[in-house]
Amino acid sequence: MINNMRRNLSLLVLLTGLVLPWVYAHADGRIKGTGGVSSIGGAGGGGLIPWATLTSLASEEQRGFTAFATYTDLDDFTLDVVGGGVNFSDRLELSYARQSFTIKANDAEIEQDKYALKVRLAGNLLYGKLPQVAFGLERSHLRDPATARAVGAKDDDGTDLYISAARAWIDGLFHRTSMLNVNLRYSQANQFGLLGHGGDDQDTRVQVEVAAAMFLTRSIAIGAEYRQKPDNLNALREGGAADVFVAWFPNKHVSVTGAYVMLGEIAGARPQNGFYLSIQGAL
Questions:
Q1: What are the φ/ψ torsions at residue 38 (nearest 5 degrees)?
Q2: What is the DSSP string of 75-112?
Q3: From the CB of residue 60, how many other CB atoms can be counted at a distance below 10 Å?
């Protein structure tokens, strides 16, 4: 555990060092915080789920970039994620994340690559009659498929599809800027894809994901997320996941997010709760 924490802190420092020298050489785009942070799958949004917002600060006719590192410490597991994204004209987002999932008892590790695409279809987060609506695609590739095969997964790799809608209100709850995001996701992923896709008890229904956030100040936001997950494996029960988070935006280009996460049973282990820390640099 200590080695994982040290490794992840080193990644946080490295990514920050790579991003910050470029920060002040680029023009500002959207309002601070409207790009969200980076999800564990790499796409822009919250920590647990993507949102309809696109990553970085890019507005029309601009390109934006993000880099991030995340560490999650659960009761019996850890999850390290590093990645980044590109935003083209606040219309198209491409992202990548490398996930390393470690079992504390024996240091066994499962690695997974996530490749994602998100397209803004209509609307605007803050202005106009329509909420911001986006379509997303997330491709998962297991580097270590042995565990997935052992528990009965049908496929090593898989693709999630989702539709997302988000709206922010400047004079929202308690006269604070507030936001609500709802996703409908088609997914066969077992534990975010770390245990493969599909299984002997196939559950292919559409999953619901919800996030809500409120800015306490111009730089600090609090919120919560909930994510349904399919339950495809007879041998291993899988329920939903949730988090409660605090995000700090010291300026437009840097965010630090901490959260308490509740991921339910994983690979037959007791319900897994723990803490999440993520840092992101955005241009």
A1: -110, 130
A2: SSEEEEEEEEEEEETTTEEEEEEEEEEEETTT--EEEE
A3: 8
Residue 196 in tokens: 């493969």
d(CA 96, CA 181) in angstroms, rounded, equals 22
Residue 83 in contact with residue 68, Cβ under 8 Å?
yes
What are phi and psi for residue 119, nearest 5 degrees?
-125, 125
CATH number at residue 228: 2.40.160.40
Identify each DSSP E strand in 195-283 by its residue range. Answer: 206-215, 220-227, 241-251, 254-265, 271-282
Using one digit for the tens of pLDDT, what is the confidence trace for 154-213? 999 999 999 999 999 999 999 999 999 999 999 999 999 999 999 987 766 799 999 999
Q: What is the pTM of this model?
A: 0.89
Amino acid identity of residue 252, one-letter, is K
22 φ, ψ to 5°? -95, -15
Written as one letter, the residue type at 23 is V
Q: Give per-residue burial for 170-182: e unless 16+ CB within 10 Å, then b.
A: eebeeebbbbbbb
d(CA 177, CA 32): 12
pLDDT at 27 over 50: no
11's enclosing H/E stretch is: helix 2-23
Task: For residue range 218-245, list pLDDT tens digits in order.
Answer: 999 999 999 999 999 988 989 999 999 9
Residues spanned by the domain of 222: 2-282
Work out how many domains the chain is built from and give that number: 1
SS3 146: helix
